[in-house]
């Protein structure tokens, strides 16, 4: 197994375990008649699904030569596949939560607390998953990843 | 009295929100972070629940210099369940009165001197007119097509359309050349 295969295995396992924890928490909340909070766990699972798919898209573009016009400019910036994978994933970590953050700010400003909370859940899941990915990228690929926006 | 009793009941039907209400029962105003610590919920989750409780009128938000605190609306909380239900009954009467006035308006618009000026295009209005026409038929007896036409002819010359619409709206039932009003 190569380094990127180890990363793939551990990262996808981490996401799967996280989703399982969210599912368990959601079931518990429903059992305890905390239905609104149960919805937050459903939202978290959806976000994890999104980033899981984006990882597989990135992985496919780098290691399986799958065409991806959106990723091509990013991949072209790097020579090493490890750096390419890290950069592709980072692109999604940078771009996907942007509208969530913007909406959270708007909701907070307008006092739409319920909507704000849902956006916050999405942003926090994305941020935590991003840091998990960073630490795994260092561990398995020996690549330091940083936000492209910094 | 807050007449949105359903909103109150919905706000109360959540264990975390009941936890917040319990934490506020001592009458002391509390801010989000304090409730977060007491109830082991994220501050954003506490804010989420407080907004629902505030919208239902169960808690009051008081803006302080750098933060906001919350306290129970004891007046609402001490209302009896009966008083809440009575409010709902009052709501129902208001709704019924609104429907009655709307029906009256539609009938006044489309009927003149007992004649139907036109058959309404909008289904909701057409249904009101058809219900008015259906009231001309007695339950428990059958009518021939000629008898149905004679009754409808009083209102409008297009008896075929009215007859068909009454059937489609299930206000009249039919077998060949036999019509009756469903029970």
Report on the architecture of this protein.
The complex is a heterodimer of chains A (150) and B (183). Chain A is mostly helical and 150 residues long. Chain A has one domain (3-141). Helices cover 81% and strands 0% of the residues of chain A. Chain A contains six helices and no strands. In chain A, helix 1 runs antiparallel to helix 6 (113-141) and helix 2 packs antiparallel against helix 4. In chain A, 29% of the residues are buried. The model of chain A has no long low-confidence stretch (mean pLDDT 93). Chain B is of the alpha+beta class. Chain B has two domains: 5-77, Winged helix-like DNA-binding domain superfamily/Winged helix DNA-binding domain (Arc Repressor Mutant, subunit A, Orthogonal Bundle); 82-180, no CATH class. Classes of the chains: A mainly alpha (150), B alpha+beta (183). Chain A binds chain B through residues 32-37, 40, 111, 113-114, 116-117, 120-121, and chain B through 13-16, 41, 44-45, 47-52.
List the helices and strands and how they pair.
The complex is a heterodimer of chains A (150) and B (183).
Chain A (H helix, E strand, L loop, with lengths): L2 H29 L3 H29 L8 H5 L4 H15 L1 H14 L2 H29 L9
Helix pairs in contact in A: 1-2, 1-6, 2-4, 2-6, 4-6, 5-6
Chain B lengths: L4 H8 L2 H10 L5 E2 H8 L3 H13 L3 E5 L4 E5 L1 H4 L3 H30 E2 L2 E2 L6 H12 L7 E2 L1 H9 L5 H10 L4 E3 L2 E3 L3
Antiparallel strand pairs in B: 1-3, 2-3, 4-5, 6-8, 7-8
Helix pairs in contact in B: 1-4, 3-4, 6-7, 8-9
Short summary:
The complex is a heterodimer of chains A (150) and B (183). By secondary structure, chain A is mainly α.
Assign the structural class of chain A, choosing from mainly alpha, mainly beta, alpha/beta, alpha+beta, or little secondary structure: mainly alpha
How many individual helices of chain B? 9
Envelope shape of chain B = rod-shaped
Distance between the ends of chain B: 42 Å
Biggest sheet of chain B, open or closed, and with what strands and sense? 3 strands, antiparallel
Total number of beta strands of chain A: 0
- What about the largest sheet of chain A? none
Portion in helices of chain B: 55-70%
Which secondary-structure class do the elements of chain B indicate? alpha+beta
**Secondary-structure element order of chain A, N to C:** HHHHHH
Averaging pLDDT over every residue of chain A, what do you get? 93
Count of folded domains of chain A: 1
Q: Residue share in helices of chain A?
A: over 70%
**Tally of individual helices of chain A:** 6
